[in-house]
Amino acid sequence: MSAITTSTPMSEVLQLQRSAFHRDGPPSAALRRDRIDRFAHAVVSHSDDLVASISADFGHRPEITTLVSDVSTLAIEAELTRARVGAWMRPRHPWGRIGGAAGRLAGMRTQVQPSPLGVVGVMGIWNYPINLTAIPALSALAAGNRVMMKMSELIPNTSEVFANAMHDAFDVEELAVLTGDVTVSGEFASLDLDHLFFTGSARTGSAIMAAAAKNLTPVTLELGGKNPVVISEKTAADRSAMRRAAERVALSRIANAGQTCVSPDDVYVPELATRSFVQEVFNAWGRVVPDMFEENEVTTLINDAAYDRVVNLIEDAAAKGAQVIGSMRSDDDGEEALRAARILPPTVILGVTDEMEIAHEEVFGPVLAVHTYDDVDDVIDLLAEKPAPLVATWYGPHDPEFAAFVARTRSGSVSRNDFAVSQSLPGIPFGGVGRSGMGAYHGKAGFDTFSHLRAVVGSELPISLATLVTPTADTRLLKVVRQGIAGYTKVLERRRRR
Amino acid sequence: MSAITTSTPMSEVLQLQRSAFHRDGPPSAALRRDRIDRFAHAVVSHSDDLVASISADFGHRPEITTLVSDVSTLAIEAELTRARVGAWMRPRHPWGRIGGAAGRLAGMRTQVQPSPLGVVGVMGIWNYPINLTAIPALSALAAGNRVMMKMSELIPNTSEVFANAMHDAFDVEELAVLTGDVTVSGEFASLDLDHLFFTGSARTGSAIMAAAAKNLTPVTLELGGKNPVVISEKTAADRSAMRRAAERVALSRIANAGQTCVSPDDVYVPELATRSFVQEVFNAWGRVVPDMFEENEVTTLINDAAYDRVVNLIEDAAAKGAQVIGSMRSDDDGEEALRAARILPPTVILGVTDEMEIAHEEVFGPVLAVHTYDDVDDVIDLLAEKPAPLVATWYGPHDPEFAAFVARTRSGSVSRNDFAVSQSLPGIPFGGVGRSGMGAYHGKAGFDTFSHLRAVVGSELPISLATLVTPTADTRLLKVVRQGIAGYTKVLERRRRR
């Protein structure tokens, strides 16, 4: 449909999109559905290319991971959005339908119209290149915006496949995909966009927000966190529940080689159950990845720097007294081969203390810190003091202990008895709080993030609100207002005496 | 209840509030209602003191303005919030009640819990010191947060009355009011708060957001704008509609001496009707403020700098060729007296061009720029290119022309046929977009702004989501996923052929 825009200066793309936005006004529901279909088709019809290019960019990534976590996730979101966008677009009634109708009879026509913001920027990330970049872009389109996407510089092959697919399906006025290095990202964050959506680290998120502040561009920041898991005493006491919990924690820790913003870094286990928990974790890993060198079984770490970073976290912990348990004993040759392939064997660390870097850094690798506890209240107190993670997970029944865990900790979401159920089910708001981010998306939350809820109110009344605040020689209004305030003061005093 | 906190370092107040927040967890509905009552009582029971102190801080401000715009507005918001907070707090069901119940039967318990953020900071402004500072604080309390308020340094008397009233009603752990100069404001914006709410200028808002970025503190920014008014041709052609429109524009321009973030700076009038429109504006001003020196009739400008700023805008426009029409001819002595009292006579400016400062600056004084037009489409195009204002106002029927105005311009809200109906009715979201701000409050919008919508999802299913993304020797899942994607691709292709 149009030339690839990576050659066009991005400020020109912005101008093109902004002019088109003003020229055309908010798109109809039919046009939005058409855009959603084109978007989804561009992704799913290139799923083989995406599987191959993501795998090439990572070093290796299993087909099932890309098809489920990236392609299918986007497809499900597209269908949900397509089915609901007509309803989400409709004017909302802050006084309810009945209140709104009554107001209208009385001469006040009151609506809140979800309105597109203009040109939305989406800064992508490499770990789930389609899921975390395409879903926000899709929501922004559905909300009637023009969209500029910046792909992560760590996935050049994927970016090219994705950009070509999108530019075949969209005019640059509607959607543009930019590629390029960190300089381009900096320039992108400094554009005078109408909203900037970013997924990545807290450090970069902070810089992005500061850049956006110059243009008063609102931001959504999807960051990460340590994503603690608590194994309740009840679960620890039930052998099959315990085994299931350990297996789910184990699998979630190695999915995408731990390069997942909702992946658990820390698990808290009742002291007596720790040994058997660790054993079950290794059993699960052994079942799932019996042979690391069977290439198609694991995702590799994204680059050498990432590999070295995780190894350094492990070595730092070991040097400071932690007990490191690797899943594989291998001779030096084996280690060399793993390092060359950027495959890190799943690892458990016991005895992590605050002095160790791993206690504070997001790991982004298949390394699980197992902590022991005596009293679950201590764990809750500890977590309450730490930065809020994207997700906190609890294994155990829906009981008062779980309620206390929910009430007294902060996190983007809470999952119980499984990995990521609070983030990956369709239609459920996904987003962090505190250090794990600001703003949410997925389903209606995404639509609302990229909409301005614009009140449109008309009056046919003979009296004006303006007269209420205008001083006048007529003191009747003043008397009425004074009486009202005095009466309300008495009401409040009666309430407080009760 | 506690010593005034202006002597306590603000970082200590933050620590106190944060510890209390973690210790107590989210407050019950009853406690929230009690806090709302205490808050409202602290304001309404001091309404005489507030009237006097605000008037002292301004120089003069009529009692009716403070009682209606500040005290009553807060009281109405408090009652609305009190009545609805129980409902707003309740868990929400992203799949609907029926979908949620079905999910639960199937083993998935899905809720979205509106959760308090922690410690919320509110930076106040002087022009409506209670309304614009107390309402966001009230919403933050209702959402279960602890609140730190920083009062504007331009209203020392008001700040003292308000702070004393609040500290009699609240423990510092619940709510603290800080006073002090711009240095204190800078320190406040740099606190590691869980949300920062600011009302003020775009320039300061940008600096506040940059400071908040360092701590990843989400911000709500309530800024301002030129708030254009369009008099449609139909209204201009109807003598009584025209008179009413002119009167409402005239009154809204001088309310609070124009020191109002939703006050109209610009009005666009059909060319043939311009003379009679200006005449009607002056007629309205003459009726309402026949004698400027009758002290209790007008609000004064907040300080000499503000007075000089507005006078400079007028003089700059005049020097560059605009026609300035003052509402009062007075000799030099009269002008001196007005300047000493900081009373600026209402003024109309015709022939404003882009070279004049007043075309770009928010006026914040009783000066109305009247522009003429031939074709309303040109006005819409012009407004679409300008920064989005807090409110855009249209005088005319609810017809396709109005619909085009709504669709093709951006603004925080749209009022039709009256001043501020889209901002001042209870329960309607209030907030800007683009240069006029980000985020909204009032009613449920305020509650949601200060809440994190936290998904809490539990699973009792025997299968885990984690297994879906884990590579396995069993390729059945991979086959199913591949087939699903291929099938969906065909569905999309069929849709596009239709």
Give an account of the 3D structure.
Chains A, B: InterPro entries: Ald_DH/histidinol_DH, Ald_DH_C, Ald_DH_CS_GLU, Ald_DH_N, Aldehyde_DH_dom, Aldehyde_DH_NAD(P). Chains A, B: One of its GO terms (molecular function) is aldehyde dehydrogenase (NAD+) activity. Chains A, B: Belongs to the aldehyde dehydrogenase family. By secondary structure, chain A is α/β, with parallel strands linked by helices. Chain A has 2 domains: 5-223 and 442-453, 3-Layer(aba) Sandwich (Aldehyde Dehydrogenase, Chain A, domain 1); 229-431, Aldehyde Dehydrogenase, Chain A, domain 2. Chain A has 20 helices and 15 strands. In chain A, the strands form 3 sheets. A 7-stranded mixed β-sheet of chain A has the order 9-10-11-8-7-12-13, sandwiched between helices. A 6-stranded mixed β-sheet of chain A has the order 4-3-2-5-6-14, sandwiched between helices. In chain A, strand 5, helix 9 and strand 6 form a beta-alpha-beta unit. The relative contact order of chain A is 0.12. Mean pLDDT of chain A is 92; it is low at 1-5. Chains A and B meet through helix 2, helix 4, strand 1, helix 9 and helix 11 of A and helix 2, helix 4, strand 1, helix 9 and helix 11 of B. Strand 13 (413-416) of chain A pairs parallel with strand 15 of chain B, so a sheet runs across the interface.
